[in-house]
Amino acid sequence: MHEAWEFLKHLVNPESIIHYGGLYLLLFVIFAETGLLVGFFLPGDSLLFTAGLFCATGILNIHFYLLLLLIMIAAIAGNTAGYIFGWRVGVLLYKRKNSWLFKQTHLQMGKDFYEKNGGVAIVLSRFLPIFRTFAPIVAGIVRQDLRLFMLYNVLGAILWIGSLTTAGYVLGIIVPGIEEYLKYIILFLIAATSIPLIYKYLKSTDKRD
User: Fold this and answer.
1) Domains in the chain: how many in total?
2) Which of 2, 14, 120, 167 is deepest in the core (most CB within 10 A)?
3) What predicted TM-score, i.e. pTM, was given to this entire model?
């Protein structure tokens, strides 16, 4: 149990993911957060930024454009896996009981977000934790046209990965020693991406009242 807990702690830490698992674990985490139901807790945004920064500083030894391509492929494959899962068995999730890895509220948030934004939700959800895990599943449940889904899927991956990974890479080049402040940057990213979730939660609470 202790070893499993230690592994989970490393799995939510962007620095640990790259230091201990390298490129392969990085790609798996991006795939899992966008394609596996239990991946909603993984640090997608901060991981992308960290990957770009580590690529610039040489900690991650890979050409930057190849890094972008591989991460985009992982993200596109992840969303596609989520879509297929939603298409085949997603409706059964509405009958599933809550557990520490699954909450009905997360699924409902994804459903509401999709209904409000339509197919564009696949693009927008890339930038929102939890939503990016459940939006492709909901798209599969409602049988969104596959060609349209793939268009939004690819576009969302390009924008999400291109912006955050490039930001980390550029700052890693122009700001010497920026890796020393990485923890503070990660905290800022977490806070910034949590604002929409907090707003959504408070709004749903007001409606219930």
Assistant:
1) 1
2) 14
3) 0.81
